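Board notes (copied after class):
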Amino acid sequence: MDLEYTPSQERLRAEMRATLETVMTPERVAAVSERMEGGPAVRECVRALAAANLLGVGWPKQYGGQGFSAIEQFIFSEEARRVGAPIPLVTLNTVGPTLMHYGTDEQKQQFLPAILDGTVEFAIGYSEPGAGSDLASVRTTAVRDGDEYVINGQKMFTSGAAYADYIWLAVRTDPEAKKHKGISILIVPTSSPGFSWQPLHTMPGISTFYTFYDDVRVPVSALVGAENQGWQLITTQLNFERAALGNLGALEPLFEKTLDWAVSTELDGGRVIDQPWVQQALARVEAQVAAYKLVNSRVNAAMTKGVLSMGEASAAKVFGTELTQQVARELLEVLDGNGVRRGTDAPLRGALESAYRQAVINTFGGGANEIQRDIIAMAGLGMPRAPRDLRAAK
């Protein structure tokens, strides 16, 4: 595996960086930074990215993309995060590719062009009270009634639900089947009668949502894949999501700004960078980020070949989300109180502190890291499954 980007990939990066800097005006950056989880400013910005032909870099040409690989799509994600552009991660990087694999021709025609236009956004409806880490225990039901499904239940941690057009919803369609066997995926419009949501505020200041389904009706054509075969779609979608969650693109410019600040700032008769502990901290960060890039290279190569495994995706997610916290802590220590100040005279205007709080939440996105370690052990290393009931382990 060649870990170096090719000259053509570097040219593409330069082109995307220039375009992103044009699209992401200071006014847009300020508007989306106030509410990164969604809203009119974010949607307007995503449509601007779509108009600049940036969203479908790694999508196949047959679905309206540019036909590049997962590597080029990752380069776009890196550059977008570098300038603070909001990426519709769930919609673009997870739902879209899953629809390519499992959607009907009608679903592909309806949703894929709209995703690339930035006019459609999805939220993921998986977790429930009592069915979070044990996702196969979902209790939200969908009962067939003629040409429709009638949905009843509740979800939580449905990030973006207040701003989404559709929910990618995991439902139980066969209550008698074993829990992994009776699950299906439905596409539910958020405009449906009986659908509602309530905000759930989190530590980063970003809201996620409870969602409620009271006799919500959707046509049978909203079923993705085969009935009762939704578990495979869930694992496919989560693999894409986990591989994307660990992207450190937003931290690299923060590292560079911290380094510049340490070089240019005087402290106790010398520069901040001249202190040995600061040099050691910044060296650790650079080495850790370089190590994670190797992990990403392997994941992107596997995605390009269509052979990304559960173990690899989970390993990238655990490593990336926990490394993000570690790197942010190191940089905050170097900056001292300057790392949390948000005034216009602050070195990073609070961006690093915000990134740290968001990184904590990302350890739960796509499945808690504790569960990811089980997946790495089982799917990646061939080890036996750990007992979920602690009493059974005694």
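Comment from the instructor: Residues 276-305 form the longest helix (30 residues). Confidence is low (pLDDT under 50) at residues 390-394.
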